[in-house]
Design the sequence.
């Protein structure tokens, strides 16, 4: 049986940055300057690469990109839970995204969504 270690983002700051071993590696592999975003077509093509390292980096990049867009959507409090979000923001100073994520998690659990 394999054991997996769960990293709790509440206790660990910048946990995603620590998960990335070689920052800028995908940019270098795809010959894209570091100061420019990777074009969507190149990123999609890289996810089907025969080079497993590039493929894994591209899949991670797509995943992180989707997390970023989801967190931007979560900046709105669930209906009727605005007060709870304000209290959670005090509980997580400097990390408002955790307050919104927690509130949405509670709201979805109450309404039978996952």
Sequence:
């Amino acid at each position: 049986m394999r054991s997996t270690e769960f990293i709790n983002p509440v206790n660990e700051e910048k946990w995603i940055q620590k998960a990335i071993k070689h920052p800028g590696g995908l940019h270098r592999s795809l010959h894209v300057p570091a100061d420019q975003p990777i074009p969507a077509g190149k990123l999609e093509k890289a996810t089907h690469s025969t080079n497993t390292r590039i493929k894994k980096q591209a899949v991670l990049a797509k995943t992180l990109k989707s997390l970023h867009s989801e967190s931007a959507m979560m900046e709105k409090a669930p209906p009727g839970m605005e007060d709870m979000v304000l209290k959670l923001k005090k509980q997580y100073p400097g990390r408002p995204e955790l307050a919104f994520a927690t509130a949405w998690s509670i709201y979805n659990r109450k309404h039978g969504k996952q």
